Amino acid sequence: MTKGFHHIFLSAALCIGSFFFLASCENDIKEVQNLGKGKENIEEGRDIESFLSIGGMVKARLKAPYMIRRDKDSAATIFPNSLFVTFYNELVPIPESFLKAKYGKYFVDDSKVFLRDSVVFYNIKGDTMRTSELWWDQKTEELYTDKPIWFFQKVPFSLIKGRGFRTKQDFSSYHFDQVYDSQTSVADSTLPSQ
């Protein structure tokens, strides 16, 4: 009888102990939800120079006087005091186009850069586009906006004002959504005098 009582007592003790162990493992739902609400990591940098390369080829160089990197919900890098980007030719590592703005924000997950305030995009031929806001998509290597634009082409001379613009980052091709005003010089088509 003592042996049976001891066995029942031991079994009951194990059951009660297991109950308390399992009960102590229960998580408070609020604690679990707050796990992802940690402090935001913020990094700052000055005199930034960063390179974008694909397949070992340098595609772009970014320079900025100040940078803030945040990784709270979606990682972003902010350039609040201006930035300057040089785009390089794919075949020969020489600059072919340039981009500058007073403010930029790089969305890491999307590989896109939002630029605003005095945005200027130009190439080595002197073609220039100005706007208030511009997106740079690093995956498609395109720049685009739905804001008013001012476009100047040096040769042949063209001055175009419109809204909405899309171009490759090498400025090799571009498209206007709407054109409000344009001025273009046409080569003289008269026959030479004899």
Structural class: alpha+beta
Radius of gyration: 31 Å
Low-confidence stretches: none
Q: Quickly count the helices.
A: 2
- Measure the end-to-end span: 135 Å
Give the number of DSSP strands. Answer: 11
DSSP strand content: over 45%
**Which of globular, elongated, flat, extended, rod-shaped describes the shape?**
elongated
Instruction: Give, in spatial order, the strands making up the sheet with the most strands.
Output: 2-3-6-7-5-4
Global mean pLDDT: 81
Main sheet record: 6 strands, antiparallel, barrel
The sequence of SSEs as H and E is HHEEEEEEEEEEE
Q: How much helix, percentage-wise, in residues?
A: 10-25%
Write the SSE topology.
Blueprint: H1 2-24, H2 29-35, E1 42-54, E2 57-70, E3 76-79, E4 83-88, E5 95-101, E6 103-107, E7 112-123, E8 128-137, E9 142-153, E10 158-168, E11 174-184
What does this structure look like?
The protein is α+β, with helices and mostly antiparallel strands and 194 residues long. The chain is 15% helix and 54% strand. It has 2 helices and 11 strands; from the N terminus they run ααβββββββββββ. The protein has helices spanning 2-24, 29-35, and strands spanning 42-54, 57-70, 76-79, 83-88, 95-101, 103-107, 112-123, 128-137, 142-153, 158-168, 174-184. It has a 6-stranded antiparallel beta barrel. A hairpin with a 6-residue loop joins strand 4 and strand 5. The longest helix has 23 residues, at 2-24. The protein is elongated and about 120 Å long. The termini are far apart. InterPro entries: LipoPS_assembly_LptC-rel. This is LPS export ABC transporter periplasmic protein LptC. Residues 1-23 form the signal peptide. Keywords: Signal. It holds the Pfam family LptC.
